[in-house]
Each structure stands twice: as C-alpha cells, then as structure tokens.
Design goal:
The structure is a single chain. The protein is of the alpha+beta class. It has three domains: 120 residues, no CATH class; 101 residues, Helix Hairpins (Orthogonal Bundle), CATH 1.10.287.130; 144 residues, 2-Layer Sandwich (Heat Shock Protein 90), CATH 3.30.565. 52% of the residues lie in helices and 17% in strands. The strands form four sheets. A five-stranded mixed sheet has the order 8-10-11-13-12. The two termini are 31 Å apart.
C-alpha cells in the first residue's frame, strides 16, 4: 500500500498536515496539563489560606457566638460545621494521602503551634441518572449519602477535601470543600480556539504550497509543449529566486534550440540547392548520350540519388515545418489514403471509428500514416488499419501479414538508412528513412510510434496521438 502521495503537492501537504497536527496536539496536551496543575494548586492554596483565616476568626469569638458566623463563612463550595468530636477520615488512594499531607504541613505553618489537624482527600463518583436526593458520592471506603451531599450543595463536585481542626477550647471545626466537575472537564472554548488556529494555519499553508507548486506545473506544461512547438511563448520569469532562475534557464534553452534548428534549416536548404543543381546538370548531359543502355543506367542512378536526397532532407528536417495545426477528421484522412491505395490496386482495410476531430498538422500526419501503410503493403501485401478512440488518446494500428522483424531489430529500424533488406534497391527496401520520419512526426504531436510482431505472423505499427 502506498503511503506517500505521488505528487509533490500531496507530499508537501502531508508533511505540513502531519507537522501541524502533531504540534497542535502537543501544545494542547501541555496547555491542558499545566491548566489542571495551576487550577489545582490555586484551589489548594485558596483552601489553605481561607481555612487558616477562618480558624483564627473563630478563635477570636466566644463559643456561643460561633454558630451565628457559620452561615456567613460557608459557601456553595465549602461547608463549615462545628462539633464536639472529630469524625473518622480515610484517604481514597495514595495520591490523596500525599495531597492531604501537603495541605496539613502548609496549614501547620499558618496555625498556632500544637494545632491538631486531620485531613482526608477523596475523589467522588457521581451517578447522574439518579435523582439529586438519591445520588451517592463514593471514593474508596468513604461513602457520602446523597441527601447529605445535596443539602450541602456538593452534589456536582468531583473531588472532596475534609479538614478538621481542633480549636483552643477543645471543640472541632470541620471544613468540607469540593472541587467542581467543570475544573476537570475539557475546556471547550480553548479547544475551539486551537481548532480555529489549526484550520487557519492549514488553509494558509495549502495556499502557500499551491503558489509554490504552480510554477513547477507551468514548467512541466512548457517542457511537454516544447516537443510540439519549439516557438511557443517563453515562461514567465516570476516568483522566488529559484523559480525565476529555473524559468530563465528553460527560456534560454528554448532560445538556443530554436536558433540551432533555424541554423540547421538554413544549412539544409543550401545543401538541397547545391546537390540538386549538379544532379540536374548530369541529367541533362545523360540525355545527350548516344549509348541508350548506359543512359538508362545513369538515369536510374540519378533517380535514386534524388530520392535519397529528398528523403534525407525530410528526415533531417524532422518536426520543423511551418504547417499550422487544424482540427482534423482522421477518419476522412484514413479513407482518403484507402482510396488512393485502391487506385493502385493495394488492399487497405479500416476497422473502428474516431468520433471527435483531432488537433494536428494534416500534411505531416498524412505523410506519417502513408509511410506506415506503404511499408505494410510493401512487405505484407496488404494493410489492416484499426483505430481506437479513447478519452485521452487516439490509437491507430497498421498491421500486415508479412515476415515481421526480428525482436533485436525492432528498435534499430528507426535508425537512418537501416534496412533489413540488404540490396539497397529502391523498389525492394526503400531508403530506410520512412519509419524514422513517421516516428518523428508522431513525437512532434506528443505521441509515439511502436513496432511489434503479431502472434500469427506479420508486423504491427501502433501510432498513439494524445488528445
């Protein structure tokens, strides 16, 4: 199974998503952990300070006046009661015992010497489906009945502190403090803020990645179109320094290639003129020869030389043509080639259909297909053309029933002047340039030409043209 996306955009997005999500999760974990610790310490310090202050206040009043102060000193979170004897205290677990010891030591520093302090810290289990008057708060061996907790306003508490301190007159004051469940629940507002921050950073990151990838996509399109049109407009040299430098290098390469092809075209035109002129003079002189047999032989040699010169120029000229592209009805083009072959008593069959027109160069494509058809007729006696119109490309297969080509030579037949037939005679083997010219034309349209042997004998030339 593939984990990494194939595209650079997908890999950058995956990297950013992974980094951002991990960073946000780590940040949320640290914030929530610190939040819980800070809240707990703050509540514990408040409990200690408030408890010590109330004890000192009660010590300053006579015993008969203390009961009147209790409603004023009590609150929803902390209930204060007076009794003659302490009640038993049990910590729910080891951490509760440690917390009670910390609170006892801090209270001892704030209370008079030799004060008797008894503390229990328990976690409460709440059963929300029960009515409030029947809930039970349990922790370890400590059980608090629902009516007692409800009357004291502690039914929605998640942690419970019970502190008992003996006053100077021998009576006991008991502090029962609960921590609300909301202190230990997920902070929804903080999580929403973190979520909005994460989405905002992700959106900006995606926009940034797309802006970085766009020049690369333009470069890919320009490189793909360079083989079809060397004179296409240059790339825009915008963006970061690296992108501008790459676009500038590509434009420089395109300019150099264009200049090289123009120079080569000029040389080819001069060679063509320089070769044809002496050939024409030789042909005129042969017409004045008295020896008919020698004259015919020389004229045949001249015809072959002119044919080879023309074919060589066509091959070297390659994709360089000023012919504009048009929307071509390829079926009509194939049928015209079939009609021309029928006039020459050539058997050419067409199978399949191409629905939509194809944007290409009509004369170049006709020369490509004619070269393949002539090759099939020359070596196989007939040409069987099959067309297939797909969504992204057109496939044209031209097959014959000839002897085929050895597997080792399937790629070599595209080389200039390479022929399997060794006589070099025009009427048997041609010039050895037809397949190379056909492949050059196919590639100039963004497609390709591939040869393969048929299972039952013969050769198939498969021409692909992208939509």
């Amino acid at each position: 199974m593939r984990i990494l996306p194939r595209s650079l955009f997908g890999r950058l997005v995956l990297l950013l998503l992974t980094g951002l999500i991990l960073t946000q999760l780590l940040s949320a974990f640290i914030l929530l952990r610190d939040r819980g610790q800070i809240l707990y310490q703050s509540m514990r310090d408040d409990l200690i300070t408030r408890t010590a202050g109330i004890v000192r206040l009660l010590e300053s009043f006579p015993a008969q006046e203390r009961l009147a102060l209790l409603p004023l000193l009590s609150s929803r979170e902390m209930q204060i009661t007076l009794s003659d004897q302490p009640i038993s205290t049990v910590n729910s677990n080891q951490s509760s015992t440690l917390a009670a010891e910390i609170i006892r030591n801090q209270l001892a520093n704030l209370l008079p010497n030799n004060s008797d302090v008894r503390i229990s810290t328990v976690d409460l289990t709440i059963q929300p489906r029960m009515p409030p008057m029947h809930r039970q708060h349990m922790a370890g061996n400590v059980t608090m009945s629902g009516p007692w907790a409800y009357m004291h306003g502690l039914q929605n508490m998640a942690r419970f502190f019970q502190i008992q301190i003996r006053l100077q007159d021998g009576s006991w004051v008991r502090f029962e403090r609960g921590l609300s469940e909301q202190l230990f629940s997920w902070p929804v507002r903080l999580l929403v803020v973190l979520g909005i921050l994460l989405l905002s950073v992700l959106l900006l990151s995606l926009i940034g990645v797309r802006s970085i990838i766009r020049p690369l996509a333009e470069l890919r399109q320009a490189a793909d179109g360079l083989g079809k049109n060397i004179k296409q407009p240059p790339l825009r040299e915008t963006g970061p320094d690296e992108v501008r430098a790459t676009a500038k290098a590509f434009n420089t390469m395109q300019k150099r290639l264009n200049n090289f092809i123009q120079d080569r075209a000029g040389i080819l035109a001069a060679v063509s003129h320089d070769l044809k002129t002496p050939l024409t003079r030789i042909r005129l002189r042969t017409d004045l020869m008295d020896d008919d047999e020698q004259r015919i032989k020389i004229q045949n040699d001249l015809d072959e030389m002119e044919s080879m010169v023309s074919a060589t120029l066509d091959f070297m000229r390659g994709t360089e043509t000023s012919e504009p592209s048009h929307r071509i009805d390829l079926m009509a083009l194939l049928e015209s080639i079939q009609a021309d072959g029928s006039e020459a008593d050539e058997e050419i069959d067409i199978h399949g259909q191409i629905a939509a027109p194809y944007p290409g160069k009509p004369l170049a494509l006709k020369r490509c297909i004619v070269n393949l058809v002539e090759n099939a007729v020359r070596y196989g006696g007939q040409a069987d053309i099959s067309v297939e119109d797909a969504d992204n490309e057109i496939r044209i297969s031209i097959c014959d029933n000839g002897p085929g080509i050895p597997e080792a030579s399937l790629g070599k037949v595209f080389d200039p002047f390479f022929r399997l037939e060794s006589s070099r005679a025009q009427h048997t083997g041609g010039t050895g340039l037809g397949l190379g010219i056909a492949r050059n034309i196919a590639r100039s349209h963004g497609g390709d030409l591939i040869l393969s042997n048929r299972a039952g004998g013969g050769l198939c030339a498969r021409l692909t043209l992208p939509r």
